[in-house]
Each structure stands twice: as structure tokens, then as C-alpha cells.
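User: For a benchmark we're assembling, each entry needs the component sequences followed by a predicted structure for the full assembly. Here are entry 17's components. Please fill in the structure.
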Amino acid sequence: MTRLRLQAFALAASAALALLLTACGGSDPDVPGSVGPSGAPTTKGTFTAIVSFGTSPSDVGTYSPATSLAGNGQAPYFGGRFTTNSATGTVWVENLAVALGITITAAEMGFNGTSVPCPAQAINPALAATCTAYAQAGALVTGRNGRGRDPATGAGALTVPVGMQIDNHLARFTTFRSSDLIIVEGGLNDLFNAFEVFGAAAAQIQARAASGAISADEANRQLFTAQTAAQTEMKKAALELAGYVRDKIIARGGRYIAVATIPDPASTPFGRSPQVAPAASVLTALADTFNLWLREGLANQPVQILDLRNFFNETVANPTRYGLANVTVPACDAAKIAVVTGGQVTSGSSLFCNATPGVPYNGLRTGADPTTWFFADDIHPTTRGHQLIYEFANAQLRAFGWI
Amino acid sequence: MSRNLSLAALALGLALVGGTALAQQHTVKAGAIRYQTDAKTDGIRGVGIPPGADADIGSATTFLFTYEYAVRPDFGVELVIGVPPKITARGAGTVAFLGEVLSARNVAPTVLFNYHFGAPGDTWRPYLGLGVNYTKFTDVKTPYGWDVEMGDSTGLAAQLGVDYAVNKSWGVFASVARVKVKSKLVATGATVLETTIDFRPTTYSLGVSYRF
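Assistant: Structure for entry 17:
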């Protein structure tokens, strides 16, 4: 009797235990960013256009008129792209277009509040459909006034924001087509804005800590808060960009969509500069925060990620593998560019950097070689750098099965 | 909910099985329990979090209630519940400056199968138990504005205790237990922080018992 009862008890107990275990399970919470995009096409596309949205790395020459040799906004231009400019100094989007047998030209060209839409069409009406390079240096995801644009007057750079770039394409073509190879790249200018705000806050916090007004712990807490605020801006930008991809591109017929992650500026000459290097980890955090939320915002969306962040890190970490002799010093010389621009440009911006040997407006640093140096200025790649980005993108598109 | 039902079913099932065989098959206990953690995390990982970030997990004391059904004179099944204590976590390692980062209440019912030495009526009766603890974290709060999720934990529990009978019905007890409580934590804010906390608690209980 006792044995029987014990068996019955054991049965009830084990059944209850099993119930308990299955009911409770030990659930794991979901981790944002851990589910990436999915469902992108896996078949080859028949591409007739590259439609490119973004910022300086993808800008095919929006601000060329600012580099007019005659100084009247007309060609020929000595610069115009954020790289080592020359007859062969194209950016990666152009290199990709050449490889695919597609013509791509600037959607808009201008400076200081005046611009011409689809300038190629003015030269040859047959080129009207080629003006699909919308990316503009300085453009933000999150606001109209990008880097280099005067908020009050609109003077300086055009900086049409990424969302508006997409709207402009839709205004011209109504929808995206399955023959469009769509590239979305954005967020770096938002990052630099957020980093500047952080930098200003950090300087004040450190001054207060140095004067003894706040404790080291309190300073660290405030720095953490300032960094968190900057990361919050990156989250906002990434989710906004992902929203544009969903609502303005996928929902409007886009099929072959590659969305780029942003590189980590810590590995650029800017990030390595003495003023910035102490906060390099913040730059990395901001880039990674953006990329995390971009992935989260694109979870289960039919796009592919073009992981420029990994490409940049890999390249800068292994220069010889990529035929690079220098990945730390800008190939352009700020002093020479200042001379070429009559003292108007002192930042060394590669927009004004010409690499043609022997010309009087050559802006290369003595000894620099745009075919073996990676950086043109403190953040933008040289001609070789753009060739490498193109090769990476090309290999990725093959891996996606798109080309 | 299904957990509560299954526990109720267990109690009901046992009551039916037990039937009329023994007198004084039921014991209820009430007392205090010290939830002493010796927690380890696998580090706090997340974008913007410096390497070497960790957290210290606090301990807590709360009220304890148990019900035990004696299947045999020497064998019982015990349900242990408590008023969910508040456990706090403070930044440690490279993020010690963060101070308190989190607090949560752990709802932690435990079912134990106890072997009682000696015989009913003995003044001193030590017992050994083995069972399962389920811990759910509720009321998770953080001053940092994160949305925190903590995974439920299901793990083994073992206890060693002693009952002292004051009279036929009333007694006092003391017990010590080790419980496996492990939870994956994801805190989402501007970034995503992840860690797994192995609480490694030892509990010390003391209280009164009533047998009927």
C-alpha cells in the first residue's frame, strides 16, 4: 500500500515538475539588433540604374561648382568629390556603375543656395534618367541643415537630407523599379553632429572635475550621461533611416536595396588626431549604436546590409593586404589647398583636393600617393580607397546573388 | 498562471493520494528568509560600455511561507513561497561610478521533496530536500531609463533543515538552502546592454511551524 502510494506520488510529482518546467521554461529576453534583414532578392537583377542616396562618400560631385577653375561656377572643376580628385578620381558609386555598364550622374549640382537639378540633362536630354546620384556631402538623416550649410541663409553646402533625397527621386520617377540597384548610405554626419555636442559637454565636465567642483565619479556619471545622449541621437537617426527604407523605398517598389552601415571614425585620421583620440571610444560607440539600431529597424525587411563598417576596420587593420602603404595620414595637404582656394579653405577638405601631377592647383601632400594611401583628408578615402570600397561592394553584390 | 494551476493540481493530487493514511500530514511554516547572493555575471556587454564593466548584486531578507504535505512519515513535498524581496544591482568594475543601476523583485516559488530523519513525535527532526526553484523577476526598475527584461529562471534547489517540536502542533525550524538562479538580462535604451547573472543564492530561513 505504501509502495503504491509512493509510486502514485512520484508520478504526480514528476508530472507536476514537468508542467512546472514547461510552463516556466527559462525564457530569454529578445535582444534588439540581433535579428537582421531578411527576404531580399537572391536572383540576379537586370539593372538599368544605380539609385544612390547618402552623404559624402557617395557624392559624385554635387559641389563641383565650388571648385570651378574659372571661379564662375562653371566647368572645368579642380575638385568636386570628397577624394583625391583627378580625371580618374571617381568615387565608389561611379566605379560600380562603370562595372555594371550603367551611367550615373549627380541629381543636383550647386552651392550657396543655387543649384541645377539633373545637370547632365541640360547637356544631353538623353541623360535625363542618369541623374540618380542623390547623395550629398554634409547631408543628415535627421535634419535639413547638414554640415556645411548655414541654417539661417541656406548658404554653403546643399545638404539635402537623405529622406528628402528619396522624395526627390519619387517626385521624378513616381516609384522605384526592380531594375534599380538602390544604395542607401547615411548617418555619418549625424554622428559628427552628435559627437560635437558630446565633445562640448565633455570639455565642460572635465574642466569642472579638474577644478575640483565635481568628483571623479560624478564626472564619469556626467560623461556617461553625455555619451548616452549622443547615442540616443544615433538611435534616432538609424531608426529614422530604416523607416525611410521601409516606407519610402520598399513600400514604393524598391527591390534591390543595399543599406550601408557607417564606418567607425575612430580609425580615420580625424579619430586619431590628438584632440579626438582620447574620445575615440565614443566615436566607435556612436557608429556601433547607429549600426545596431539600423539593423533593428531593418529586422526582417527585404534588404541587404553593405557592411562598410567592417570593410573599413578590416582595411585599416590590414593595409598591406589591400596594397596600401599609408592608412593614417591624409594624402591632401591643407596648406596647399589653402593656397589653391585663396585662403578660403583651411580645413584641408578633399573637396578641393586635386591629385593631377604637375598642375598648379594640385593639393597633394608631398610624397603622398593616392593609389597607395587610403585617406584623402581626415575622413574621406582617396581614389584607391574608393576603388577598394567599390571592390568590396561589388563582391558583396555578387555574394547577394544580385550581379 | 499555468504554474499556479499545476502547483494547485499537485497539492490536490497529493491530498487525494494521501487520503486518510496518516495523522498530521500537513505542516505550514512562516518565518524570515535571508536571500544571500554570491552573484557572478559574465560581464556587461553593450555598445559604448567599457571593457571590464560589471555589476554587484545585493542580498535581501523577506518573509517566508511554506506548506508541506507528508506523503510518508519520513517523506514530504514542500512548496516554499515568500514575499518577493527587492534585489538591487550596482555598477562594478569599470562602471562602478554608475551606482545603483537596477532593482527587481524576485518571485521565486520552490517545490522541494524532503526526507525527514527520525520519526514523527521526535523533538528534533533534521531534513534534507531537493527540488526545483522557479524565479520570475518583476517590478524591474532602473534610474537610467532603460527598458529592462530579465529572463525567468528554473533551477535546482537543495536544502538542509531541522525541525524542533515544541508540542504536538507547534514547533520552530531553521534551514539553509542553495538554489540555482540564473537570468539573462537585456537592458534597452540608447544602446543595448546584455549580461547573464548567476545569483548563486544561499538562503537562511528561521521561523515557526504548525502541524495538523
